[in-house]
Amino acid sequence: MKEVSKKFLQFIDIMKKLRSPEGCPWDKEQDMDSLKSYVVEEAYEVIEAIDRNSPHEVKEELGDLLLQIVFLSELADEKGLFNIDDVLTSIIEKMIRRHPHVFGDKDFKTSKEVLDHWSEIKKNEGKDSALHGGPKNLPSLIQAHRLTEKASRVGFDWRSLAGVMKKLEEEMEEFRATLKSKDKEKTEKEVGDLLFTIVNVSRHL
After folding, report:
1. Of 15, 100, 176, 188, most Cβ neighbours within 10 A?
2. What is the C-alpha separation between 70 and 61, in angstroms, rounded?
3. What whole-number distance in Å separates Cα of residue 122 and Cα of residue 164?
4. 100-151 pLDDT per residue, tens
């Protein structure tokens, strides 16, 4: 672990050097907004490497993703907002807080029990909605899937696939009726309802 710590500190020093007056012109020009697309891109490249079942590529892509985390932390540090140590402290505290069955006195034996208590944990963090926490800029279909997953955990869900299929038929009828009205705004809304219901069909399958 000492070797890992040494390398991590070396990595932070490299990032600081790149941002210094003697550093790289491109790195010195970057800000948080300019790095947003790279964070998303690197995350997708990690996923692609996992899908290819290539440990070497996963290792490489995780390094690229880590670069974005350290880079953003360095930008924040330069403005006196927070630093990489604060980032680590925050996630350490969160991991301990969200696993009371491992680090506390709770006794959860199954993943279902963990998920059942998840909303209570989030509420204690000041997040009063079971749907809180999903990033608004997720791709729409992924966001819909995540929202319905969270709703299901607190009991807001169809009991079976048959119930979702019935809802899909209802939405299709509403869509057909709207098409006849030639109301573009209503049609757009009904297409959204259809897609949202199809996401639920996929989730149940």
Report:
1. 15
2. 14
3. 28
4. 999 988 888 888 788 777 767 767 776 655 555 567 777 888 888 888 887 7
The CATH 1.10.287.1080 domain(s) of the chain lie at 2-96, 140-204
One of 3.30.980.10, 1.10.10.10, 1.10.287.1080, 3.40.50.300 is the CATH number of 2-96, namely 1.10.287.1080
Amino acid at 80: G
> In the structure encoding, which two tokens stand for residue 35, read together?
């790095």
